[in-house]
Amino acid sequence: MILVTLRHTKTRRLKGLLLVLTVQYYLTGCASSVDSKIEKMISYRVNGELNKRFEAFLHDRNPAVRARLAYELSLCEDTSGVSALRKLFNDSSPLVRNISAYALGRFETAEARKSLLERIEKEADPDVLEEIFLSIGKNGTEEDLRSLVLKNKVRGKFLMLALEGFLERGIYTEGRINFLLEKLANGNLREREMAARILVFASDSVRVDLSKKVIDGLFSSPGNKLPFYAVLLAAKYGKVDKTLLKSVVDSPDPRIKIKMLSSLKGFRTYKSFWKSCLRDTNVSVRSAAIEYLYKNCSDVDRETQAFIEKQGYSSRERSIVAKAVEFVFARGDIIDLKKKIDEVPFRNFKNNAVRGLYYNPSPDRVKLLKSFLNDKEPSVKRSAYKYLMKYLVEEYKSNSADGRALVEYILWGLDSADPVIAFLALDAARKSGVYYDDFDPAVINGAMQYVKMSNKAFFVGLAGIMEYMDSDALKGIKREVDRCGIDKVRDLLYSRLGLDGKEHGSYGVKYKWLKRHDFNPLVRVNTTEGSFMVKCDGFFAPVTSLRFMELARKHFYDGGRIWRDYAQGMVFFGDTTGTEFLYPEGISLVEYSPLEFSEWTVGVLNAEGQIQGASFFVVTVPSYDLNGRYTRLGKVISGKNVILALDEFDRILSIELVR
After folding, report:
1. Which of 412, 448, 534, 647 allows an S-S link to 319, with CB 3.0 to 4.6 Å?
2. Rounded to whole angstroms, how far apart are CA atoms 313 and 309?
3. 246 has a pLDDT exceeding 50
């Protein structure tokens, strides 16, 4: 008998058995049988057939198969699988019950809630109980929680696990807030971290009166997460003061400084802090300070403006020059800016000039943005179109424009030979709701053009506007979809486009390949700043993991651009457009996971939660608000300093499989 051990990063959702997940796959020589069953199961789920075929796996003698069934059912939108989960929830294996508890939490039905509540009385395994209370927090009612408290069934950490979900949904009472505040002030390290995290990621409707003493206590406490949570809590609940700012300045962690910078609205009130960050030894902190000054502060004094502009001319750091250019174009006079475009360094940082121009308060910025549409550099042209459409959509939705300019430039984009601009045009039509019959010929012509180019992204954008199109136009699109040769997404596109069509091909998952690599492939991402290692979550995201490695083997990511969102603590990889726009290439389906987006987690971006592209990101700080919204691809296990040093001028050199 051989034990295959699946090691996963510590998560709050599947403690214990999913921390060190041991599954017996080789029971008396039936390994190949187990493999084939799970491979079929994944294919059924991806093809939307699992809720009709789960009976074949429900009573399998191997707990690995039953556990996998519970997880796969959690990924199905159809709630008919809840009845199967209720049976699995009474399984003899704690592993199966644990994953079943997670799965039931994803369905907001009375049947799912009833199963969770009934199991509390019977469950003896503490790890399964944790998952039950997390799920009750996600789909339980106020009456459910009140009943459990009155029956003395919820105490200590279990109450906090349930409260986390309730506060994320904006359901709370004064007594529950006071309970969390008491844990913040006097709990042990684990309790303080849990209470802080719950309040940080609570709904914006939750009102909390935090004391200065609690904030200062969190910042000065041991543990690498508490100071970060202190900054988030202070920013969220309006408790930023000079003492905290001084502590942040003295902190050796640049992520804490950047998070504080992104939350400050106004320059003069926090002038000394801003100036300290503008002179910080860390390049990322200085870059973030310049960016958030032009985004969040309209009261920057002339001395500081002159200092930042000087940085643009004198700094040897490209990222500092880039942010200084953005600042100049965000705050400068439009007439002067027209003259500066061809000056050094501005002519070498036109993308940054366009980005800054979007934040310029002058209405004349639109004319200058339009002038960039004729630029010879494709990335500059794309950036200009992206920000122009963003402005026109916002103006139209605020009822300050009649939409004629928006329609004009949507048609301009659809007629463009650039697939990125065409996708942006479709996206603008979706976001604004502006669609006219005049669009139909341009859309059909675009579909024909991008079929020839094998461009899948156009059809993803097209799915977002199908509700506005008439039946004849849809028939024309159907002809092009039938010819496009993208079997892996064709069925999904049919459903999104509202078309009738039979199945084409199979999603086919090379499950056995993952098994040979312990379900956790290890990959090295080589960049111009150095390398970092990622351990993929092959068990929970097998299709995504395989797609990622398939693209890497084809050198899809080689030369891909990198950019950062300082406020969110995220680094994005796979920008093939040069515009900080993550184009949905390398399409696959989203695989939601019980694993959470803790710090140094790797995720994959998606389009409206259904289709995901090839672009991936790393969160350098806890980002639990992403849980259940994106596929978690894996975890960074080395090279974290490399990730913190990356900026928009860095590139991916290659991605290689290590194991």
Report:
1. 647
2. 7
3. yes
